[in-house]
Structure formats: structure tokens, C-alpha cells
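Sequence, C-alpha cells reproduced for reference:
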Amino acid sequence: MTMAELTKAIQQHIDLDMDAEVAQGMAEHALGFFGFYNRIIDNALEPTDRNLFYMFQDYDLLTTESEETTLWDGREWRIHYWKFKPDLRERVEAYMQRNLQEDDIDPFSDIYSTDGPSIWTREGEKVANPNAFTSDW
């Protein structure tokens, strides 16, 4: 996973209007843990970093896995890992290849088109006696 790919994935999954610098900062922070590996051990994370990883998991960017091992004294030990979703790279590539020119359909665009400028005049509401409510009669 490259910085550019993760930055696009963060924007795609979290907020399409997110500033690129904010998304890149989040991507850089996350990639700083992984280095050249495809997974990171959960115990290496501080609580605030773990919260970020849980947020990424909620947005379908990361997943967890665990493995069990037997210690020398016979006890079972479970190790939890974080890793990127296996199909994340393909989803980012598909997102980057999508048609960026989506048609914005305004359902209210033709409300006033049939009436023209006459809708704003009040020709039908002319008062028969314009001075009816004044003292000028």
C-alpha cells in the first residue's frame, strides 16, 4: 500500500470532500506503523493510535487477525494483528478510474421554467380599490 493509494482510500471511505493534506497526514501516520510489513502487532499501538485503527476498520480499510502460540510453560498466547484489507488496493484503483463527471440531476430545476417571468408579477391580484385601507379616500 503506497501513501497515495491510502490517501485516496481514506478520502473515498471517510469523506470525499476531505482535504488532501488531512487524508495524507492520516495515511502517513498509519503507514508509519506498518513500514514494509503487511501487518502490525496490536500491542505496539498506543490507545489513541488504536482508536484511529478502529476508525479505519469501521470504514472498511483495515481488518484484524490473530494467531495462537504455545509458550514454553504450556500456556496458550493469542497475538492480535492489524492489516490492510486484501482488496483495498483494487478498490482504490477502481475508485481512481471511475468516471469523474457525474451528472448532477436537480429535481427542482424545472419548477419555474413553464411559467416564465410572469410568475413573479401579481397581475391577477390587483386590488379593486387601492386606497381601501388608507385614510386617503
About this structure: The helical segments are 3-13, 20-34, 47-58, 88-97. The longest helix spans residues 20-34. The mean pLDDT is 81.
